[in-house]
Amino acid sequence: MTEACSGTCCTRDRCYVEGSVGIPLPRTIVSIFEPGTHNELSYNEQGEICISGETLFKEYYNNKTETKNILQLHEDGKYWIHTGDIGKINEDGVVFVDGRMKRMIISSGHKVFPSEVEKIINQHSAVKECVVIGVPHPQHVHVPIVLIILKNEYENQEETVKKDLIELCKCNLPEHKIPFDFIFRKDDFPLTNIGKVDCIKLEDEYKDQLSFQEESFSHMILKSSLSL
């Protein structure tokens, strides 16, 4: 992380746990706080990842407001970088990153992190690339949907792949995190100026895409399967 002068954690030998970013480097303190507060959480509790230590940056150039937002003085007398990342730390001090707070989807009061869902979708051999976004819903406030680009050899197999993905999600995710719909794209995802997928543009593109007069086909299949 640039604001912490490069790396803050490392995975090596016995400090490696699958799915983690490892343990904090020497003289670097990583802890989890309740988002929007200075309340420190306990082991395995999900919250905002914050960093303290001797490598923190001083400030953003000519931007005191953003500096104050990310670099905060806590009641313990230490300055902490509020990373905007959501994650947890286990009893061995191993750090896990679950996603970005800005991309978090609130659906019927439940938190859905797109990266967690994308990881499951990407397990399917037909998926070339996928992005999970939140779209407005009259009852649930927002619902997650997944946008999928298939590999060339799986073109015209959308319905078969969709049923496979529903089953995959049903076996690996709680119900509130399962995408409300699976939408296949032919075009590449739009990118930001730094080459990342432009999720904001996608959310704007698909905000009116779904009709909520009746439930989507894929979600009806899901509910039917779960009720068996």
Would you kindly provide a written description of the structure presented here, covering whatever features stand out?
- This protein has helices at 64-70, 114-121, 158-172, 199-206, 217-226; strands spanning 9-10, 23-24, 28-33, 47-53, 71-73, 79-89, 95-100, 105-107, 110-112, 127-137, 141-150, 181-184.
- With 228 residues, it is an alpha+beta fold.
- The strands form 4 sheets. Strands 3, 4, 5, 6 and 7 form a 5-stranded antiparallel β-sheet that branches.
- Strand 6 and strand 7 (95-100) form a beta hairpin.
- Helix 3 (158-172) crosses helix 5 (217-226).
- The longest helix has 15 residues, at 158-172.
- The radius of gyration is 20 Å and the shape is globular.
- The mean pLDDT is 89.
The CATH class of the largest domain is identified as: Alpha Beta
* Spatial separation of the terminal alpha carbons: 47 Å
What CATH calls the topology of the largest domain is: GMP Synthetase, Chain A, domain 3
Q: Enumerate the spans where pLDDT stays under 50 for 5 or more consecutive residues.
A: none
* Fraction of residues in helix: 10-25%
Strand content: 25-35%
| The CATH homology group name of the largest domain | ANL, C-terminal domain
Q: Indicate the overall shape.
A: globular
Main sheet makeup: 5 strands, antiparallel
Query: How many DSSP E strands?
Result: 12
Radius of gyration: 20 Å
Give the gist of this structure:
By secondary structure, the chain is of the alpha+beta class. It is 21% helix and 30% strand.
